[in-house]
Design goal:
The complex is a heterodimer. Chain A is mostly helical. Chain A is built from eleven helices and two strands; from the N terminus they run ααααββααααααα. In chain A, strand 1 and strand 2 form a beta hairpin. The longest helix of chain B has 27 residues. Classes of the chains: A mainly alpha, B mainly alpha.
């Protein structure tokens, strides 16, 4: 039971971590919480599901296109809702992000209707015995994929010129500009990467819960933000750690405390973190 | 028709109080609450439960609603208001979700069915069951709240709040206790939202968790931004416009949230000061630029 819940928690936690990476990267570079991150997640899932439902596209291409659509949405969002507001009171882009989030959510509601859509492709998943406990291969696949994406992102930020440029912008935007870095392009790239990860997360959850619907991004988005704060906002390893911890805490809390309040656990943790250690578990920003 | 207009006026009055309370947080203290409907709901449920279980008169239940909502505001504000404004945004959003879940899961609040048969106010030998009488009650409450907010924002404390909004560090250097101010204003605003919740509950006589969700928080936020952050007249105007507009545009009901979202982003980009700008009913746009 405990081990089973632990695996469940790690699975959802790895998805939270993927979204949290988007939050944390964008926060690192712009000091802005992109409240529409949950809708980007929803967009990735919808594009993949709709493409697969046509029956013309194979699974991997649909996932890739879903991620691409999410990434594109992130870049467009930055252009439309955030860039014109740079330099204004921090409250202003925050409210703008909320507006964008509501807009996208209700747009999806109008376009696709309120009902859950099942995932169009049926996979047959077996159960593997892991140290005496049955674990679904789906969970293992999600965990592996999520960890793979995280590894790719960390490698990108650490070892490529563009990744280093993003870190430079996060550390000091003005100095980065003086060093010849095109800051606007790096901000767009950050949105692109973060949104692609969120899109991937959306697709994974669409498979895991077998449901895609317009409001699917709301709670995972908020929880992922809590995860980012838990790990230390602006900190990439922190976001991963925070996401996994939060997923496990939620899963165990639902099993041992109360399933009715499952969604409240993340926020209770968030408030506790802000009270006790507002800088998060892993302090600092950037890489 | 008259009954319908009375209904609109009462609802608008309740929304004005709500919007004013949110504007105190956003427009004057420069913080943001994205779960304001939670305080509204706490007020509504508190007042309703007091009236249903203990048969207390409305002034007492309304006071209970204010105190309960303010206490929650204080509890939420204490850990978060010392930090940057973003944290408050997320915590209040999360708080809204939690409170919604609490209303849904608690036996006391009637779960998803909510509470029915909330009595109309009846005190000092007066009954406020008739809409016209209820409008008077709302108008009196609104009048008191308006006077209170006008006096507050015009006072030393109001200037201190605006100083915090414009530049927190400078305000701190000038000797303003910024965390204390932010916590007090947040508590006050939560209390006012609780009052509007009580007014709503005893008017509609039936409440369920649906009314107090994220949708309502966003609606209040749009009202405050539309009218003008930091403008009392703006809050009144924003609340009235967004109460009347959906009624006028019944056919496009599905598009309401879409419009609110677009309105928020569009306003912030094109006219971030809202319709009525910074605190005064200005006719400046009529003057020619010299």
């Amino acid at each position: 039971m405990f081990f089973q819940q632990l695996i469940n928690g790690l699975t959802t936690g790895s998805v939270y971590a993927l979204i949290a990476l988007g939050y944390t990267m964008i926060y690192g570079i712009l000091g802005l919480i992109n409240f529409a991150q949950g809708e980007i997640y929803m967009c990735g899932a919808f594009v993949a599901v709709l493409l697969l439902a046509t029956g013309q596209v194979n699974f991997f291409l649909a996932c890739l296109l879903g991620m691409a659509a999410a990434a594109l949405l992130g870049v467009v969002l930055e252009r439309v809702a955030f860039r014109p507001l740079r330099g204004s009171h921090p409250l202003v882009p925050l409210i703008s992000a909320i507006g964008a989030s509501i807009f996208l959510q209700s747009l999806a509601l109008l376009l696709f209707g309120p009902n859950d859509r099942p995932f169009p492709v049926h996979f047959t998943f077996s159960s593997v015995d892991l140290a005496g406990v049955p674990v679904s291969t789906l969970q293992i696949a999600i965990l592996v994929a999520a960890l793979g994406f995280m590894g790719l992102l960390v490698a990108f930020v650490r070892y490529t010129t563009y990744g280093k440029a993003i870190v430079a912008c996060a550390l000091d935007r003005d100095t980065a500009r003086l060093m010849g870095i095109n800051v606007d392009r790096m901000v767009a790239l950050t949105f692109f990467m973060g949104s692609a990860l969120s899109g991937a997360a959306g697709i994974m959850m669409a498979i895991y819960y077998n449901a895609t619907y317009p409001r699917m991004g709301l709670l995972p988005g908020l929880k992922a933000f809590s995860a980012a704060v838990l790990g230390g906002v602006g900190n990439i390893p922190g976001a991963i750690l925070g996401g996994l911890l939060l997923g496990v805490a939620e899963s165990l809390g639902a099993a041992y405390i109360s399933s009715g309040y499952k969604d409240a656990i993340a926020f209770a943790i968030l408030i506790l973190v802000l009270l006790i250690r507002p800088q998060g578990i892993l302090k600092g920003r950037g890489d | 028709m008259t009954a319908y207009l009375l209904h609109l006026a009462i609802v608008a009055g309740i929304y004005i109080i709500l919007t004013l309370s949110l504007n105190l947080i956003i427009g004057y203290a420069g913080q943001v609450s994205l779960g304001h409907a939670a305080f509204y709901g706490i007020g509504a449920y508190t007042s309703a439960l007091m009236a249903l279980n203990w048969h207390w008169p409305f002034p007492l239940t309304a006071l209970g609603a204010i105190l309960a909502a303010a206490a929650c505001g204080l509890g939420l504000g204490l850990p978060t208001l010392r930090l940057k404004e973003d944290y408050l945004a997320v915590v209040t959003l999360g708080f809204g979700v939690i409170i919604d879940l609490v209303f849904l899961n608690l036996d006391l609040t009637g779960g998803p069915d909510g509470l029915a048969g909330i009595p109309a106010p009846n005190f000092l030998g007066l009954s406020f069951r008739a809409p016209a009488a209820y409008l008077v009650l709302v108008a009196v409450a609104l009048f008191l709240v308006l006077i209170f907010t006008y006096r507050l924002v015009g006072s030393y404390h109001g200037r201190a709040l605006r100083a915090i909004r414009d530049h927190e560090t400078t305000a701190q250097v000038m000797g303003i206790n910024t965390p204390a101010y932010k916590i007090i204003i947040f508590t006050l605003a939560a209390g006012l939202a609780g009052l509007s919740g009580a007014l709503y509950a005893h008017y509609i006589t039936f409440i369920n968790p649906e009314t107090f969700g994220l949708h309502t928080s966003i609606l209040i936020l749009t009202m405050a931004v539309l009218g003008g952050m930091g403008s009392i007249a703006g809050s009144v105007l924003g609340a009235v416009i967004l109460t009347v507009l959906p009624e006028a545009l019944r056919e496009v009901q599905g598009y309401q949230d879409l419009v609110y979202g677009a309105l928020l982003v569009g306003l912030l980009i094109l006219r971030p000061e809202g319709i009525l700008g910074k605190g005064k009913l200005s006719l400046k746009f009529l003057q020619r630029e010299g």
